[in-house]
Amino acid sequence: MIFKYFSYWIFIWYILYILHVIKYNPKIALLFALSSNILLLIVMILCKTTTHLVFLLLLMMLLLKIIPLYTIWNTKISQKDVSVFALLLIVYILYMIMNKQYINEFINNIIELIIYKKNTLPLMQQLENLGL
Fold first, then answer.
1. pLDDT mean by block of 10 residues, the chain; 132 residues
2. How far is CA 84 from each of CA 27, 43, 101, rounded to the nearest angstrom?
3. What pTM, to 2 d.p., does this model score?
């Protein structure tokens, strides 16, 4: 289920912001998500995850975080933007709890990706299905 990954929530927020459906800037959330992906990338490299999976993660980062950040880089982050990010994170956590999607499942997916070199992330799987 795609909604168990907070990155997709943030990307949807970005799309809604670009389309002027909402006025709150997702820049802080995109920076948070990119930072967590950079940490994941470092761990993947240190654990010698396959080059193919590292490439797919980099492509996913480009599509979901780097390009969106680039398009809004010159925008300012307000206190309300930070508050909305915190609220979205709380709503996400509550959503996960209500749907019995717990952090251990997410951690298991990351462990399978890094240690067992299995493609466990939805967008990475879709990119792989496209022959990338």
1. 76 97 98 93 90 89 96 98 97 86 73 72 73 72
2. 11, 30, 22
3. 0.82
Rounding to the nearest 10 degrees, give the CA dihedral for residues 78, 81, 82, 87.
Answer: 150
Q: Give the Cα separation of 30 and 92 in Å (integer).
A: 15
Query: Of 75, 74, 98, 88, which Cα lies nearest the Cα of 29?
Result: 88
Q: Which two tokens stand for residue 6?
A: 């907070």
Q: Let me know how long the chain is.
A: 132
C-alpha distances in angstroms, 115 versus 33, 37, 54, 97?
22, 16, 13, 26
pLDDT reported for residue 1? 47
pLDDT digits (tens, 9 = 90+) for 113-124: 777 677 666 667
Which own/partner contact pairs does 49-57 have at CB distance under 8 Å and 24+ positions apart? 49/113, 49/114, 49/117, 50/117, 53/113, 53/117, 53/119, 53/124, 55/132, 56/119, 56/124, 56/127, 56/128, 56/132, 57/121, 57/124
Place of tokens 């990307």: 11
